[in-house]
Amino acid sequence: MSESPPSLATDPGEVLRAPGVEPDAAVPAPKQRRTRITAVEATAFLLTVAILSRPLYADLLDEPAVQTWATIFISIAIQAMPFLVLGVVVSGAIAAFVPPSFFARVLPRNPVLAVPVAGAAGVVLPGCECGAVPIAGGLMARGVAPSAALAFLLSAPAINPIVLVATAVAFPGRPDMVLARLLASLLVAVVMGWLWARFGRAGWLTLPKRPQLAGASRWSVFRTSARHDFLHAGGFLVVGGLTAATLNVVIPRSVLDTVADNEVLAVLVLAVLAVVLAICSEADAFVAASLTQFSLTSRLVFLVVGPTVDIKLIALQTGTFGGRFTLRFAPATFLVAIGSGLLIGNWLL
Amino acid sequence: MNREMQSGLLVLVGATVLQLSLTDAHLRYVKAGLQPILVIAGLLLLIIGLLTLLRDDRAPAAARGVGDDETHGHDHSHGGPRVAWLLVLPVLGVFLVAPPALGSYAANRAPSQVTERVDVLPPMPKPGPDGTVRLGLANYISRTYDGGTSLQGTPLRLTGFASARPDGGVYLTRMVLSCCAGDGRPVKVVIDDPEGRAFPEDTWLQVDGTFTPMPPPVEGAAAEPGVVAAIRAQTITRVPTPAQPYE
């Protein structure tokens, strides 16, 4: 920057200073506008680099193990996409077009009756777990009994039509699997709702503030909700697909067979896997379908535990209802879900 | 991640899904019947991604409402869930790796799937113009359980890829999907070849031959779990990989 004698006619960005004051005295010049690299540009750059440098790692990609791993991963991700997209479109529509007062009007006043009704209402309201938590919070904020709202919270992600169709597609020729999922998940929702009605204390629950929807058009809310839900769910779907591919290719078959043959171990491992993987309920059936060494009952437990308690839900519930709630609710749900899956699985499958 | 990137991810994934579904590429990963809803899903993602980019991200701050995450209690301080970055992985996988359908590597890792015994077999298909009856491998295996009564004397054509037999030679193999490639399991048929021809694994073969019972196990030979059928080969032709490689 050229030295210019202090004057009132300044360059843009230069601070007006009194004549006689040295440039680097008390007042610093404002920062120049930094060129910031946005996420889009960075991603485009990295993708270009990855594509152009492909000859460097082409040999690795030609390994049959790597190719098989990639095929399994991509197939699970692609297979689940239509169901995931439909799920976020519908949950976005509910967030945008269905007034929360609708739910409050439809449920019975008596909590004991409201719990099964709210649980069953999950059938007609498709939504990923991301959508169910804010909706349940909204219900509570509008006076719906917490036990009923919680029953809905647990059932809506698990028994809505998209999930059931996805389960039917994932397990062709086994409609009993679809029925078992429906009954077991409904059982969890109702049991947890009643448990809360009996034992829950208001002090454990921080009622969430009502979400602000000021000013946005309904279609805008719809699109941004759908985008938001898709990003959440899509990310975790990829985690699920990566894990399934790794289980299928990297873990030696003997290890998987040993775990799968021991029924107790199989159920526990899949239950923990369901919590850790946090796959959206529209997609978890396809991951479960790929775990062919495991019994149907243990895979049912995987499908029942996943939509009701996983690391994503724990974070969401803590954020919406508070840590004291989640500390009690999540472990209880985990146990009830395993029990329900075992009960219905042994009965129907 | 900023809002541009969020919409950008939707556009990327939508474009990937569309590219797969509008070409034969999706047949390597999922069943053919998924194509229509796959196309719809890709279009929806593209449309929502573009519309949010063009309309909603330009809206004034007051109108962003639920799009912002203040009231969700989520952990994404930057406005988009960080786990969503993983969505680039399937995109990269499809375009950079473009892996083929499951082949001999997957087939060798699993025993041949036991095809269910069917009490009443459907009638055999009519022969093609060259006089051979084409059968799927699983169909063929299910017809061998009763000693092959429906197959006797009929010239057959089976197509599959070669996978290694423990003691030398190859099986004629296909991967069977119940849902998608994630759960693919192999079915294997022994190629009883008087000429003892050898083929590298993953070569696609068209075998013209006739039914023959399974050769009796040789003393000291490796176990072949699940393999119950064989075909006596007269002509074996290499064919290009079919667009629909799974059964």
Task: Using brief descriptors, characterize the structure shown.
heterodimer, A: about 350 residues, mainly alpha, 16 helices, globular, B: alpha/beta, five-stranded mixed β-barrel, 5 helices, about 25% helix, elongated
Model description:
- The complex is a heterodimer of chains A (349) and B (247).
- Chain A is mainly alpha-helical and 349 residues long.
- Chain A has helices spanning 39-52, 54-62, 64-97, 100-106, 111-121, 129-141, 146-159, 161-170, 175-199, 218-249, 253-261, 263-277, 284-290, 296-308, 311-321, 323-348.
- Residues 1-15 of chain A have low confidence and may be disordered.
- Chain A is built from 16 helices and no strands.
- Chain A is 72% helix and 0% strand.
- Chain B has a five-stranded mixed beta barrel.
- In chain B, α1 packs antiparallel against α2 (35-54) and α1 (3-22) packs across α3 (88-97).
- Chain B is α/β, with parallel strands linked by helices.
- The chains are: A mainly alpha (349), B alpha/beta (247).
- At the A-B interface, α1, α3, α10, α13 and α15 of A face α1, α2, α3 and α4 of B.
In brief:
With 349 residues, chain A is mostly helical. Helix content of chain A is 72%, strand content 0%.
Secondary structure: elements and pairs:
The complex is a heterodimer of chains A (349) and B (247).
Chain A (H helix, E strand, L loop, with lengths): L38 H14 L1 H9 L1 H34 L2 H7 L4 H11 L7 H13 L4 H14 L1 H10 L4 H25 L18 H32 L3 H9 L1 H15 L6 H7 L5 H13 L2 H11 L1 H26 L1
Helix pairs in contact in A: 3-10, 5-7, 5-9, 6-7, 6-15, 7-9, 7-14, 8-9, 8-13, 9-14, 9-16, 12-14, 13-14, 14-16, 15-16
Chain B lengths: L2 H20 L12 H20 L33 H10 L6 H6 L23 E2 L2 H8 L11 E9 L5 E7 L8 E8 L11 E9 L17 E9 L9
Parallel strand pairs in B: 1-2, 4-6
Antiparallel strand pairs in B: 2-3, 2-5, 3-4, 5-6
Helix pairs in contact in B: 1-2, 1-3
Shape of chain A: globular
Estimate what percentage of residues of chain A fall within beta strands. Answer: under 5%
Structural category of chain B is: alpha/beta
Order of SSEs of chain A: HHHHHHHHHHHHHHHH
CA(first)-CA(last) distance of chain A = 79 Å
For the largest interface in this structure, which chains are involved and how many residues does each contribute?
A-B, 79 and 79 residues
β-strand number of chain A: 0
Strand % of chain B is 15-25%
| Number of extended strands of chain B | 6
Radius of gyration of chain B, taken over Cα atoms and rounded to an integer in Å: 25 Å
